[in-house]
Specification:
Layout: E1 5-10, H1 16-27, E2 30-33, H2 34-44, H3 49-58, H4 60-76, E3 79-82, H5 86-92, E4 98-103, H6 106-117, H7 121-143, E5 155-158, H8 164-181
Parallel strand pairs: 1-3, 1-4, 2-3, 4-5
Helix pairs in contact: 1-8, 2-4, 6-7
Length: about 180
């Protein structure tokens, strides 16, 4: 029997991290977030997050290190990976994983981030669009990958009008179905 690996991917504001945390608590799997991994590597480099972020943009090896650490966690099994590229990383290594993509319309995502960060609508919208464009371009150059390619995923959930508990239950139901077929 294969170890349990669930990936949670999605654009900013879709609820990716919130849902991954809730799911981890509910089904008792450890959670690995790419943000935490990024902070760990920044500490290893003795850099602040902002300095390390700038350093990472200029050094593609950092992305490779993030991917490698994420892959090692997945290979160990019994984990939920919270990362935009997690589905791509496990698929690229032919790991059996249940891959989830969370989506939401732009207006919903902007409002969620506004609530979290206390910024104005137009500012958040601009930041989201710039970030998405930059990440998609970077991932295409580094990996020839598009994390929004829906063919990567076993379950796609539009989170726009669902509660976190409903989303988690949809994932649990989808995971049960996935396991019964594999």
């Amino acid at each position: 029997m294969n170890a349990t690996v669930i990936t949670i991917s999605g654009e900013p504001g879709t609820g990716k991290t919130t849902i991954a945390k809730l799911l981890s608590e509910k089904i008792k799997l450890r959670l690995v977030t790419i943000g935490e991994t990024f902070r760990e590597i920044a500490k290893e480099y003795n850099m602040s997050l902002s300095d390390f972020s700038s350093f990472a943009k200029a050094n593609p090896d950092i992305d490779s290190e993030l991917d490698l650490r994420q892959l090692k966690q997945a290979q160990g099994g019994n984990v939920i990976l919270d990362s935009r590229l997690s589905a791509w990383v496990v698929k690229n290594d032919n790991l059996n994983a249940f891959k989830v993509l969370l989506t939401a319309d732009l207006d919903t995502r902007v409002k969620r981030i506004m609530g979290r960060e206390g910024k104005k609508y137009d500012q958040v919208k601009h930041e989201i669009l710039e970030r998405e464009k930059s990440e998609l371009e970077r991932y295409k150059i580094l990996y020839s990958a598009n994390y929004l390619d829906k063919s990567l995923y076993d379950l796609i959930i539009d989170t726009s009008d669902l509660t976190p508990d409903e989303i988690v239950q949809n994932i649990i139901d989808g995971f049960s179905k996935f396991n019964s077929q594999n």
